[in-house]
Write the structure tokens for this entry.
Amino acid sequence: MRSILRKLDKREILSELEYKELLDYIDALINSSLESYDLFYTRYSAVLWRNYSVYIPRFKYDIDDLINHLLYHPELFGIIDKTPDLFELFPVELHPYIAYNLRRENNYHLFTRLIQSLTGFASTPHELPAARSGDVVIKYEDGNPYKEIGLKSHFDRLAKYQFITRVQSYRYLTRSKASQDKIDVLADDRLGGIYTNKEKSIYYYLFLNERDIIKAENACSVLNIALYGKST
């Protein structure tokens, strides 16, 4: 691992095997030693994003898990600012992320921003596709999640949203890369996304748990807000 970290420090290209070893190392850290992972995150998260287009969360359960939980528990939006102990409203796995934000921001600022950005979706869960009952299916080219650097972490993030049943890459552009990453509605049960790393733009499908064009449009808006900070 030291040789891989030296490559990160020098901003050098990682091989497919090195990339796999790095992701395995990150998974081991976040599952075994939060203190060690926090040191790694502080040193390398910006480097990974800026130079390799690889997203890693500060916590194992973070903003995407919080948004997904709120979307399917809209009753929380009306009582967040009235509840002295926020932790009693959320599952224990979200507590470290919530505690971090309460220390960093002014009291309920994180939740205020979420309420403002998700108004119209969070208050009406029936306007989003129903949550899936099992695990999401993720399909990569050649069945290899490590072939395209950054794609696995992006797909893992999308998989946290319960209205998605399958994520599948299908097209790759190396010369004419997309000008921006985004997600669009393709059909009443399918969205289309673009993910761009340092080498190419990768197009992918997001299959939803219901066939309903309004719900598909709402799901699309939620994902664009969460990932890119703006609605469609």
